[in-house]
Amino acid sequence: MKFSHVAGALAAAIAACMLATGSALAQQPIVVKFSHVVAADTPKGKGAEKFKELAEKYLPGKVKVEVYPNSTLYKDGEEMEALSLGSVQLLAPSLAKFGPLGVREFEVFDLPYMFDDYAELHKVTEGPAGKALFKKLESKGIVGLAYWDNGFKIMSSNKPIKTPADAKGQKMRIQSSQVLSAQMKALGALPQTMAFSEVYQALQTGVVDGTENPPSNLYTQKMHEVQKHVSVTNHGYLGYAVITNKKFWDGLPADVRAGLERAMVDATKYANQIAKEENDGALEKVKASGKSQVIALTPAERAAWKKALVPVHKDMEGRIGKDTIQSVYTETGFKPD
Ligand code: LMR
């Protein structure tokens, strides 16, 4: 064979090979790992599964969503770094967990008695204040895709906590939020920051006396089995921001990004529709278990809690920013006094 023939055959072979690899690559679905720390049977867990179902339906063969619940892939304190390194593509950390990232404004959601109900909360998460908060994530290389609801927190301990004074001296596990630390200190309690995956054991072994969480988290982690009392204080809100890595998101083919956006819109509707029901149901299950005594508060008792905890708003102005707090007040009509 002449040299030109050999070169021609070689070039053809290389081209064929590239074509085969190219089409093989094109057929490989994009893997989207979604890691979270709660049980699959919670509003967030079910929302993540719904997102997987819809994303794979809207983008057949183009994406594969892998959901890792219960801290099986990353724990609190690990997941944000994993997102920035590209080891995971989707997270839904609670809004109380953005402080360590340097976006303290998210702690506005942790302020006690900031929201009376879901309708007030949605004015923020679905309005300009929620958008402005997402904008603050961009400089950290993060895109905020959606707010997902969980619910209003109850306090648990081995001692009945009916009045704010009852919490005095109790070691209470909190998420990594300075606002939650200030809230516990306002009660005379001793806050202990701890990853969610460690809470059950810490309660069981007495490393901490009690904690706060919406009923669905308490129940699905079996915390009620190691806590003698649960008070329905509804003193604060716990919910999520679904986030992704900006570089990953911007680098997606446009049709894939659009499909994932559509799946996120629909999964968000679903997650936010079930959150209240899931929490009401979990509280009923805690009651029915008989393992933990569920303490209801009278309106007068609730007013006493509010009086003890609302001053935290003013104390935390320096941390969160007066403007951010005011922007939430404007949406909800909250009056501090
Ligand atoms: C917690 O750490 O208590 C919660 O943020 C867990 C969760 O993600 O709901």
Describe the 3D structure.
The structure is a single chain. This protein is of the alpha/beta class and 337 residues long. The protein has helices at 3-27, 43-58, 79-85, 118-125, 128-135, 178-186, 199-205, 215-220, 246-250, 254-289, 299-309, 311-315, 317-320, 322-332; strands at residues 30-35, 63-68, 90-91, 142-152, 154-157, 171-174, 190-193, 210-213, 229-231, 237-245, 293-295. The longest helix is centred in the C-terminal third of the chain and has 36 residues, at 254-289. It is globular and about 60 Å long. It starts with a helix and ends in a 5-residue tail after the last helix. The model is unreliable at 14-22 (pLDDT under 50). It binds (2S)-2-hydroxybutanedioic acid. Residues 37-38, 94, 150, 175, 196, 213, 217 line the site of (2S)-2-hydroxybutanedioic acid.
